[in-house]
Amino acid sequence: MDHHLSAAVLHQLRLVGAADTSVLAQRCGAPVAAVRRELHRAASENWVHRTASTVGTPRWALAPAGRRRGEQLLTAELDARGARRRVEVLHSQFVPLNDDLLAVCTDWQLKVSG
Questions:
Q1: What 8-state DSSP symbol labels residue 82?
Q2: 67 neighbors 19 (Cβ within 8 angstroms)
Q3: Phi, psi angle pair for 45, to nearest 5°
Q4: Residue 77, class by beta-carbon neighbours within 10 Å (0-12 exposed, 13-18 middle, 19+ buried)?
Q5: Which of 83, 85, 71 is nearest to 7 (CA)?
Q6: pTM of the model
Q7: 29 in the Ramachandran plot: left (φ > 0), alpha (ψ -120 to 50) or beta?
Q8: Under a CB-based contact definition with an 8 Å cutoff, are residues 48 and 8 in contact?
Q9: What is the pLDDT of residues 10-68, one digit of tens each?
Q10: Which residues contact 99 (CB under 8 A, 6 or more apart)?
């Protein structure tokens, strides 16, 4: 089992919601065959599941247990790299800016061109 690939696949599914194998492979920077193996292994652990798609190709989605497993893997990586404190500091610096960022994004999306 490749813990790095497992964490990457689960994290990408958390970010995109649902995706097919080739999209996940591209986002993870990994070979399609390796990502396919990881997805089938993750499915056997009930971390991911297949979803119906309107375009005919089933996609993979994160299950609640997969979200928890992904969080465990990311936590372990932060601790192994000694990066937890730095990430916490950066996050605390970002949180006060988040509302302003969201407001700017919303204003931009709703702006009517004229």
A1: T
A2: no
A3: -95, 0
A4: middle
A5: 71
A6: 0.77
A7: left
A8: no
A9: 999 999 999 999 999 999 999 999 999 999 999 999 999 998 767 677 899 999 999 99
A10: none
